[in-house]
Amino acid sequence: MTKRTAKLVLGALCLCCAIGAIALRLARATPPVGVVTTNISGPVAFDPFQLWSRTPEHLARIQVEGMSDVYVRVITIAPGGQTGWHGHPGPVFVSVKSGVATEYHGDDEECTPIIHLPGTGFMETSGEVHNVRNEGNDPLELVALFLVPARAAPRIDMPNPGNCPF
Q1: Closest to 111 (Cα-Cα) out of 100, 99, 103
Q2: Same domain as 74, residue 55
Q3: Which end of the chain is more exposed for a tag (fewer CB within 10 A), N or C?
Q4: Closest CA to 37 of 78, 7, 1
């Protein structure tokens, strides 16, 4: 076998391994169930920015390095539905418009439900694996603002971390 042939064989093997790893990850992903997502806006391109806002009662600071895409989406989850285990490449601001959102985190060994009522909100940060479920009898409607790196998918499907019985 020549050096060139050996390099081609090795390259083909590496490519096959990479494809197999991606396929295995996708096979273990937990897709949404009973979820309808409506894109209201986005992606909208944002240049890097620093935001600083202060009043006597409030201070907000956000610094973004690199280009970003912003999405606004309405996410409706039917009773018994769930987002599936997933993460995001940037922060997500979530508002509960109606229904009750029950959130679970992949790094919580106790699988503690976090309840979000209508009129409240919560944050999802990059690298955080979570699942939002509608454990109530009424549809759950969320409004979410995603701030993600330019050209990145706003959602990353993740395998079930195994800490919850579902």
Answers
A1: 103
A2: yes
A3: N
A4: 78
